[in-house]
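Changelog note: in this version the structure field was regenerated for every chain. One regenerated record is shown below for reference.
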Amino acid sequence: MHKDISLRNAGIIAGAAAIFAFLFGIIITASIPSFANRGEASPQQDPAIAMVGEGGESPFARVAEKVSPAVANISAERTVTGTFPGFEWRFQGPWDELFRDFFKGTPRSERKTQTLGSGFFISDDGYLVTNYHVIKGASDIVVKLTNKQEFNGDEVTIVGTDSLTDIALLKIDNGEKLPYLEFGDSERVKVGDWAIAFGNPFHLEGTITVGVISAKGRAGIALPEGPGYQSFLQTDAAINPGNSGGPLVNIRGEVIGINTAITSPSGGNVGIGFAIPAHLAEWVIDALKSKGKVTRGYLGVYLQEITEDLKDALDLPTLEGILISEVALNTPASRAGMLAGDVITQFDGKEVKDMASFRIMVASTPVGKTVKIAVFRKGKIKELKVTIGEMPETVTAAEESPEPEYELGLHVVDVSDPRADDFNLQVTKGVVVLSIKSGTPADKAGFRIGDLIIAIGGNEVSDISDYRDLIDNLKTGKPVIFQVRRGERKLYIAVTP
């Protein structure tokens, strides 16, 4: 009897256990996906999945839809003065003075040239940003949008320009609200982030190219149009002639830079493009908008990067900071007690990493503001208080840094510049060659340091302004004659840009 009861109970227990195991198995099976998903990102969290829309469309399509309406095609016409049509001064040898006297007083011709670039609106009331070199010397500016809307004549006003950063601010007055873009935080941009360039390369309107941020803080780039203040974002998003002034945006469609220049042996894109970072552009744009010009902070120092040799020779602990090579007299720096040989390590609470970023720090500091500057001097850190002055109009960006501009590979200065005194030229006109970049057209043509350039293409060079105007109008691939004085003799040098 007990045995029968025991077997019956055992069967009941076994059956119950089987039923329980079955139900438990169902519960566990249903729970497995949620447990499995805990170790990986959900589709909303996975950046690779988030990059594709529900319909499989590219995220760049959404950026293009957002940005393109606010991007403009800018064409600017300007008048260039030269010798009369069909004649360029190319005579050499003993008869050059005779021919020069014969053609002296010949009327100079004027011709129209056209530049093409891009721009973008930053407000619905028509403020438009582009590069200064796109509209430099323009007599007529035409702005076209992707919807074929066009503005010209009195509708387009130049609010202000800044050659040292290559930025120009225009205003469109037509009484309509216009599409516009917002600036992002370019200082938070990382190498490897998406970079999307908009513009009108080679007259191809509404072009978009995609790449990444290749590097940050690029400076010392030898560009025909400058600019003097450089802290470029470098990108491999294709930038070509005509892209200048267009926006470089992030994956959210925020402007992180202004497309400005390329480095290329062929003149076309090779994956090395440069954009003015948004944080620098915003400061300049605000100044142009409020004052029509940029007022820059000024210290009055010449600077050098610290090399291993300088570090060892000056017994410096690290390569960090920048070295003061000279302090100009009667400047904010001299009044604050800054000395040649000081190494600047901090400015207004910020670490000083390189010359390019430091120059921008100083330039963007309000005039009259007193800041703390930490310098390393004789083995100790010393804190100085400096009241920032206003950069004089006669002082260029070179005052705060020896980074020169190399047109055709030449770094030149006016004969009145103190740096020209070493050559004892005893002249009042012309520009003197201070340095030459190896492998450039000027180097290959045979220029030497100390050469005095007195004419280009038969046109007299009185000063640096004349020189740059003439350089701006040279045609790529077409040889031009430079007349120079070397020592006591004059000679001609043919250069092919």
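Spot check on this record: The mean pLDDT is 81. The two ends are 115 Å apart (CA to CA).
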